[in-house]
Amino acid sequence: MRRVNIRIKGNVQMAGFRTFIKNIADSLNVKGFAGNLEDGSVRVVCEGEEEGITGLVKTIKQNPPSFARIDDVSVEYEDYKGEFTSFGRRGNDIPQKATLDDLLGVLKSFDSKAEKLVSILSDTNVTLKSVKEDTSSIKEDTKLIPGIKENTEKMLEKRRYSWRVKVPTGRPEAVYG
Question: Which domains occur in the chain, in start order?
């Protein structure tokens, strides 16, 4: 069993990052928490099997969610304590004490995320149209299936086994008649 303390710096708050980490941790049976820190970073403290901890750290570094930008990941391994029974999110999603500039930053963040969502949805729409075009030929091809079945049945009816004795060996052999 292993324990790790991870600090992630970058654009990682208000980006779905803690939920992303929780989902990965749950899938790897890792227990602990992900919490927002006042400096804008995210802290993860977790425990679990070595393989699960390694998988979580690797995923954070290599496959962050599209809305997040990671500038730095620091990882400190510690002795296992058995402190956690589940994985949770800690900290507030929106600053509790905020200036107008802070709130403007939140709104700009939402605007940026909305633009990314529109781009993702547009790409998805293009992909779906492509799949629809690709599968339209399948509809034409499958119209031939009933004819294939009938032709196969007719062919099997014509194939009858007949037996004859092979002259040199005296053994019977099957031939198609």
Answer: 2-90 (3.30.70.100)
